[in-house]
Amino acid sequence: MKKWILVLMLLFSMMVLGAQITLKAATPFQKGHVLADAMELFKQKIEAQTNGRIVVEMIVGTVSEEDANTQCSQGVVDMQFTGGRPVEVFAPQYFFVNAPFVIKDYEHFLRVWNGPLGAKAKAQIAEKGNMVCLGTVYRGYRQFTSNKPIYGPADLKEIKLRLPVVPTWVKIWEALGTKPVTVPLTELYQALKEGRAEASEGDLTQISSFKLYEVQSYLTLTNHLCGVGWVAMNKTTYDKLSKEDQQLIQSILDEVCAWATQKIKDNESNIIAELEKNGMKVVTLDSSVLQTIREMAKPAVEELFKTTWPVTTWAEVLAQ
């Protein structure tokens, strides 16, 4: 009799609270990176607010950006906290939002991403990638690391630059005279340590969390790309959720993304100081040098708008 009472109580609690939901969330970044921290905060908040009815299983720093994106599209994982891979793969004509020298700052990015162009990109990601974009995070400007000082364009010539497997980025950096070496993020540290690459570029939390100060001597502040992180959920998973759970997840992610963005804005100078403390020498380029580099990249960017991102023009993007 007692056994039946326990079963009935369990069934009642499941009806009232809903069956437990487990969300697998992956990020290619190491613990300490802002996107890994954002995923951890999302886990804490959603589990606390649902009293453990929704549980998040985290996969941190063990999958590449390419694999995380594929797995999220296919439903192997339910969520990803990642870079621009969802846009690059499933809405490639709109990938200018995550390309060197194109976007001015995060506020400019938000105007573009939350406007008509961004709406079309999100629709393509949903249709072709089976993913819903639920939020973005400011990751800080991407900077340059190397084992020799970079004072201007001449110092970039022939340097073996580690880049992610992103063809548009390769074209732009080739225009600046570098010799790109495409290496997945999970192999970044080892590639620099072994000398397969001599330099890298990335946001400050990437440089810090991957401990690149152990294998790179100089940090050059190039500000060449406003780094953005995306939070995306597998659309099949999302559609199975109740409207209430969809709204709750969105509400929590809004909080988490705002927190992560502010964290980076408040701490960029502290991260630079910490990298200096760990032995990196910081090179700050004169505005005229930065403008020269930008002008050198301009023909490659303009060509990409004609061949790869024909949905708009650089001038139209800059006007937003």
Features:
globular; nine-stranded mixed beta sheet; 320 residues; alpha/beta; D-Maltodextrin-Binding Protein, domain 2
Would you give an account of this structure?
The protein has 320 residues and is α/β, with parallel strands linked by helices. The chain has one domain (20-318): 3-Layer(aba) Sandwich (D-Maltodextrin-Binding Protein, domain 2). The chain has helices spanning 2-17, 34-49, 65-74, 85-90, 106-113, 116-129, 167-175, 188-194, 204-209, 235-240, 243-277, 287-307, 314-318; strands at residues 21-27, 54-60, 79-82, 131-146, 160-163, 179-182, 199-203, 218-234, 281-284. Strands 1, 2, 3, 4, 5, 6, 7, 8 and 9 form a 9-stranded mixed beta sheet that branches. Helix 2 (34-49) links the parallel strand 1 and strand 2. Helix 7 packs across helix 12. The radius of gyration is 21 Å and the shape is globular. The termini are far apart. Mean pLDDT is 94; it is low at 10-17.
Give the topology:
Layout: H1 2-17, E1 21-27, H2 34-49, E2 54-60, H3 65-74, E3 79-82, H4 85-90, H5 106-113, H6 116-129, E4 131-146, E5 160-163, H7 167-175, E6 179-182, H8 188-194, E7 199-203, H9 204-209, E8 218-234, H10 235-240, H11 243-277, E9 281-284, H12 287-307, H13 314-318
Parallel strand pairs: 1-2, 1-3, 5-6, 5-7, 8-9
Antiparallel strand pairs: 3-8, 4-7, 4-8
Helix pairs in contact: 2-11, 7-12
Short description:
With 320 residues, this protein is an alpha/beta fold. It has helices at residues 2-17, 34-49, 65-74, 85-90, 106-113, 116-129, 167-175, 188-194, 204-209, 235-240, 243-277, 287-307, 314-318, and strands at 21-27, 54-60, 79-82, 131-146, 160-163, 179-182, 199-203, 218-234, 281-284.
